[in-house]
Specification:
Keywords: Coiled coil. The chain is an alpha+beta fold. Helix content is 46%, strand content 14%.
Length: 293
């Protein structure tokens, strides 16, 4: 089945063209591209002392809520031939779920929504759905950034950002998806701004720091919180690997390879996006020196 799904995935990718705002599950793009774009946007506005308002949208159980009809709509919207769409339909033909309990008769019921879990094709189908239903709402990058179901919206005007979020909420609801207002967060580089944004009559949570795709973005553009998060995550990874790194029976050459591949990679995640300072370099150097001892 996996081989069949990958064949369909490859054929669809040869046909479609996804928005450049989408960094998830597309060739030559990844988390660091989105992180760099968001961080650069914040830094430039801080330099020019211009306000920037950002919203980080949280979609509630996004992969599990997509109606199958939205999948067929998205495939046609992207110009995928009916022959390929029919093959995808076969994969989604009469899906059923089964509930078994310790006592009683197992219950089966049909499923008409949601992507197949563990499917090699699901990531592509999801970004096609997101692209098809929101393309007209997306602003040019970096004002709108997507990584699968992670969405960042930005604007220099707070009222404009509120209108954008409301439009996204209504569009997602129209296609069976739901914006989780309780987990959607608002951040602004204008530290004197005390109010927040409302969506559907609910206040969004206001924050000065947001963990975006594993990297901490700060409203003041400072790296302090990101460096602390990297150091803590690296120590956590190092402690999980002490069985290998502190074993005297394992050759140092092998331990060095493990350290570089497993531990140091955690410390340097997203570092190519940092406006690094001597203080940042010093803190990382001190951490690494302690580990190597």
């Amino acid at each position: 089945m996996k081989i069949f799904e990958r064949i369909i995935d490859r054929r669809i990718r040869d046909i479609i063209r996804v928005s450049t705002n989408q960094c998830g599950f597309v060739a030559n793009c990844g988390t660091t591209d989105a992180i760099h774009a968001a961080r650069l946007l914040i830094e430039k506005h801080r330099e020019k002392q211009k306000p920037l308002h950002l919203a980080f949208l949280d979609l509630e159980k996004a992969f599990d809520r997509v109606p199958h009809e939205a999948i067929w709509y998205a495939l046609r919207w992207h110009g995928v031939p009916e022959e390929l769409i029919e093959w995808v339909r076969i994969l989604y033909a009469d899906p059923r779920s089964r509930v078994e309990a310790a006592a009683g008769t197992p219950v089966e019921f049909p499923i008409s929504v949601g992507m197949h879990q563990g499917s090699a094709l699901s990531p592509l189908l999801f970004i096609l759905v997101m692209d098809a239903i929101t393309r007209d709402l997306q602003r040019p990058a970096p004002w709108t950034l997507l990584y699968a179901d992670d969405v960042m919206l930005a604007s220099e005007q707070k009222e404009d950002l509120q209108r954008q979020i409301q439009a996204w909420s209504e569009r997602l609801a129209r296609f069976g998806l739901r914006l989780n207002v309780k987990k959607t967060e608002y951040m602004t580089t204008n530290l004197d701004e005390r109010s927040t944004i409302q969506v559907d009559g609910n206040d969004l949570r206001r924050t000065d720091h947001f963990k975006c795709l594993g990297s901490t973005l700060s409203a003041d553009g400072n790296l302090a919180h990101e460096v602390v998060a990297r150091v803590n995550a690296t120590w956590l990874k190092w402690r999980s690997m002490t069985g290998v790194l502190c074993d005297k029976n394992i050759p140092d050459r092998f331990k060095s390879k493990v350290y570089r591949a497993v531990v140091r990679s955690v410390a340097l995640y997203g570092a190519e996006c940092w406006p690094a300072t001597k203080e940042v370099e010093r803190r990382l150097s001190v951490m690494e020196t302690k580990m190597l001892r």
